[in-house]
Task: structure prediction
Amino acid sequence: MTESINAGTNNTIVLEADKLTKRYEDGVLALDELSFTIKSSEIYAMLGANGAGKTTTINLFLNFIEPTSGEARVMGIVTHKEPLLAKEKLAFVSENVMLYQNFTAIQNLDYFAKLGGKKNYTRDDYRNVLLRVGLQEEAHNKRLKGFSKGMRQKCGIAIAILKDAPAILLDEPTSGLDPKAGYEFIQLLDNLRSEGKSILMSTHDIFRAREIADTVGIMNQGKLVMQAGRDELTDKDLEQLYMKYMAGHMEAAA
Amino acid sequence: MLKLIIFKELREIILSTKFAATFGVCSLLIIMAFYTGIKNYQSSVQEYNASKAALFSQFETAKDWREVPRLTVFLPPNPLASLVMGISNDIGRAAVIYDSGYQAFRDSVYSVNPVFAVFRFLDLEFIFLIVLSLFAILFAFDAINGEKERGTLRLSFANSMPRATYIFGKITGSFLALALPLLIPVMTGLLLLPLMEVPLSVNEWIRLLIFIICGLLYLGVFLTLSVFISSITKRSSSSFLFLLIIWVCSVLIIPRAAVLLSGNLITVPSTSKIYYQRVQMQMNNIQELLKRANEQINKIAQEMAASGDTSPEAQKRYTDKMSEVYKNLQEENDKKISAYISRLHEERYNKQKQQERLALGISRISPATVFTLAATGLCGTSLELRNNYEEKVLTYSGIYSDFISGKQSQPAQDNIVKETVNPREIPDFYYQPKGFSDILKDALPDITILLVFNIILFCGAFIAFLRYDLR
Ligand SMILES: Nc1ncnc2c1ncn2[C@@H]1O[C@H](COP(=O)(O)OP(=O)(O)OP(=O)(O)O)[C@@H](O)[C@H]1O
Ligand SMILES: [Mg+2]
Result:
């Protein structure tokens, strides 16, 4: 992990949603002209109620679905036009990934690292990254079958770190982590930011979001209803803001 | 990338406990099938030799070729038939020869040991039929939707990987993961053949190897089918259910249903019906025959009256003429009836063939049937065995009757005290199975169908996955 790509050293835009719109086949408008940008060394936290469109946004960046209109771009590459190229620049941590149950933690890491194009990692690299995400050493060579949800989540995070891509997408990464692991995870994100990564994270955890994110966006029914930088947030009470926007939009919807 | 996926698939399957358990059982079954097959072959060789020796000793007690008992010929044991039994246990192994003909075959394995007829034998073909298909289903039913359920599909496709590479690697990897380990017990079994001194010709070895390749193709059919089904169903539990239903249909239901269906579509007249038709025709003809006889006899009587010649010579001439009329009419009638009967038999035979072809045609929609047909064809135990055996016995009966009438026409040598019969003079009955190229030619359509099944299902799985919703 020495050859960490510092995505264009400073403040280049890495992730960009440009009027991103998604209407599912059944007519549900999941995203409505969503736009935001995330620079290198920046953490963006997406907040929003269930069904607000967070996962849909991440799926669009990964080209798992095609946008109805608008574009998602990774370092200028339009994801639905050149998905393979775009995905080289993306690492992904999904919610509740089970991974391969018959493989050990290290075997899982090895497979996904190679899939991500990293062929030169040694066992030590795997050991170090697992220690870094907080998985005790005695678990490294155990099959994932016996792992708890949190332990698997740690492996998932380790896989994303190993890919060493300029952008990291995380869909509710802290679900399943205990408070200590949650705290360590925040530290880890901080580290990754200082390595120059651009991080898009969806979460329901407003307190952690405020603690770590450079920018917080609140989504409701596919729209970004509020976006604020870290500096603005220190003065405002995010929780109240969040509730206010949620409530306001609930009323509007009603 | 492709290699990575293939190896991952291999490791994932082989490292699972599910694999350890099922592989153990499968290996045991396969080796057992070889072992019992060889044992059965050895005992049938002994039985064959004993029956032949018993017959010879009967011949030796005869003082003269005029007094020899009827000759029985036996179907020699075929080592391949002990691995792929086909119909070899159902047909009689012994045929009694009489004047350029033979009596119905007797002493089939199942008639001698009826208990086997109830449970059938556990031969290699049966084990392949059941084990390979279930094995493929068990390990590939959740190939795609299972990965989705575990989130690994999303995680894998978060990398720059083409879908085509993934699905190709997945099918190849799981095929290798199932086929390679199964080749271990198969190889062990093959090794048992020379170790237990089963004489196999080169031609038989090649046929056995082609049979094993057919087994792999059959495995491939169910594997690609499983991958296909798992990429068109949402949940792995439903794909498992679907596959189980397909398995039951193709292994258990279609082959039987096809026979029933073709039996309903094409009715083959029974032999008793033919007999009844013959009797009816005779009855109908008798009226006409009598009428025509009366007419002709009357004519002769009138002729006789007109001539006025009443000498005994003349009378004899006329009665001779009359009996001539009867004889001619009788002969004509016999000819007519026998032509009619042979036509009925021919029709029956054609219908039977038609029914057989239809049944096989319908049942070929099941890969299991196709595999069985290819396997029995290759090992010489298909329906052809019976036809071929009958043909060979018929030819032989001609040879034997020439031989025996030659022997019997020699003047009896009463002055020589003891002229024993030497049964070794009897021309040998060789059951010559079909030639290698003929066998291959017959099996080729079924091997091709297996291949086509593979290609179609592979393409199906491929296309279904290219359109698959990865989320
Ligand atoms: N495949 C689909 N077909 C139709 N509608 C869908 C589909 N997937 C999601 N949706 C709808 O799109 C909207 C956004 O869903 P999405 O999963 O993006 O929400 P989310 O913000 O991730 O919610 P959560 O916090 O529960 O994870 C929801 O209204 C959902 O019902
Ligand atoms: Mg979500």
Observations:
- The mean pLDDT of chain B is 86.
